[in-house]
Amino acid sequence: MTEDNGIALFTPTRIGAIEVANRIAMAPLTRSRAGMDGVHTPLAIEYYRQRASAGLIITEATNISQQGRGYAYTPGIYTDAHVAAWRAVTEAVHDAGGKIVCQLWHVGRMSHTSLQESGVAPVAPSAIQAGDEVFTLEGQVRPSMPRALETNEISGIIEDYRNATRKAREAGFDGVEVHAANSYLLDQFLRDSTNKRTDGYGGSIRNRARLTIEVVEAVSAVWSPDRVGIRLSPITRAVGETPLDSDPIATYGYLAQELGSFRLAYLHCVEGQTRGVNGAADFDFQALHRSFGGHYIANNSYDRARAIAAVESGYADMIAFGRPFIGNPDLVERLALDVPLFDAPPESYYGGGAEGYTDFKPWTADVQPLVSVEIDEKLDIALDDSFPASDPPSMSEPAGRA
Ligand code: 8OZ
């Protein structure tokens, strides 16, 4: 339990319909430890249970369909087997007093034919191949050339979001977070660099924002808007040289305003470039928050002092920490006590088993070598490191993508 140290960061609040015990969220962290069928092993139960003192856990990005999968060993939320595996996770988190929402993910063009059903091409707003890497059973490879979605296929994608939301509800989650960040499918539609469509989903800002808004509308109708959050990253390249929008202020400002009318649980922003630089100064996230009007979760390179100040000043309702939650399952307690953080080795981030996943100990003065790290959030969203290169999962060396 956290100390009542009189600091707002450690006090309860309500985010939409979700009562949270403190203002610290666990950011979505891809850990690549599910089976190739997207079903979590029991290790995930322990992993999330250990981190249940976070006010809100946002799960690792979770595929809404096989078409939406871009990385090996990532979990899904579209079959009954997925529901059963996730239900054990949500029960463990709830039993430990935590709250947990499922991040709904469709990677769009960030995929490879080997990860798609019958080896077909991944889908995207436009047939423009990404220059970065995704993780397949053969290791890290360039994403395949995608094919542009036909207009009449878009309703099927929205239906996949609906199905995933129903499944998340069945699995006992407290809500869902729509992943519209980091240049995956929804962000590919938003950015004019990746969307060259000439139908009602391309061209003007309004058209490029249409899919995200339709998804949010559908997901909110299946559950309830106050159980739906959304993650945006207006100025985040996420991976390599992923292109940005030509006018992020106008594009994401319009979107935030439109999203505001749904009265969602929250807007969650990756504030910056995620290359070890907070970058919030490059973009007015406060203005974006104002346009949205609801609760705001800030993410990217926050340390204890900045997190405390951001909540104290009313800048944010919650702060999401990513990488520090890998090596510090009890991050909330450590921040409350203001004790050092453990810097998990990068080799532990993606793939493998219990090692580097569930074996990080809670803080005591003598338990493990403690390294005081500068908190740097890039790893909850950025592909700065490599993935396991073989099946069964195993660790691999970081690819050194600084
Ligand atoms: C790291 C590795 C793979 C995917 C994101 C879901 O950037 C991710 C991701 C992060 O949002």
What does this structure look like?
Helix 5 (205-222) packs parallel to helix 6. It is globular and about 55 Å long. It is of the alpha/beta class and 402 residues long. Helix content is 26%, strand content 14%. The protein has one domain (8-365): TIM Barrel (Alpha-Beta Barrel). The longest helix has 18 residues, at 205-222. Helix 1 (43-50) links the parallel strand 3 and strand 4. The chain has 10 helices and 14 strands. The strands form 4 sheets. An 8-stranded parallel barrel has the order 3-4-5-10-11-12-13-14, surrounded by 5 helices. Strands 1-2 form a two-stranded antiparallel sheet. Bound molecules: 2-Phenylacrylic acid (8OZ). 2-Phenylacrylic acid binds at residues 30, 61, 71, 181-182, 238, 381, 383.
> How do the SSEs run, as a string of H and E?
EEEHEHEEEEEHEHHEHEHEHEHH
The CA-CA distance between the termini, in Å, is 36 Å
Helical element count? 10
Strand order of the largest sheet: 3-4-5-10-11-12-13-14
Q: What's the alpha carbon Rg, rounded to whole Å?
A: 19 Å
In the residues, how many domains can be counted?
1
Examine the coordinates and then state which fold CATH places here, giving the name of the CATH topology: TIM Barrel
CATH superfamily: Aldolase class I
Shape, principal axes of CA atoms: globular
Instruction: Provide mean pLDDT, rounded.
Output: 89
Any ligands, ions or cofactors bound here, and which? 2-Phenylacrylic acid
Strand fraction equals 5-15%
Structural class of the helices, strands and pairings?
alpha/beta
Sheet with the most strands? 8 strands, parallel, barrel
Low-confidence stretches: 369-402
